[in-house]
Amino acid sequence: NILKGGIRDGKEGFIKACLEGYYQFVMLAKLTEHHKGNHTDNK
Description:
- The chain is mainly alpha-helical.
- The chain has one domain (2-42).
- It is 93% helix and 0% strand.
- The protein has helices at residues 2-9, 11-42.
- Helix 1 (2-9) packs antiparallel against helix 2.
- The protein is rod-shaped and about 45 Å long.
- The N and C termini lie far apart (42 Å).
- Keywords: Transferase.
- GO terms for molecular function: transferase activity.
- This is Glycosyltransferase family 2 protein.
């Protein structure tokens, strides 16, 4: 789905798709880090 949008919109669509993917990666990393912190606090 992201690839199709990137190809359809050209360079701008591709950059937008990359930024969205990067944003999702950062949010996932923060959530994972947050969960690790909670487990450490619970011990």
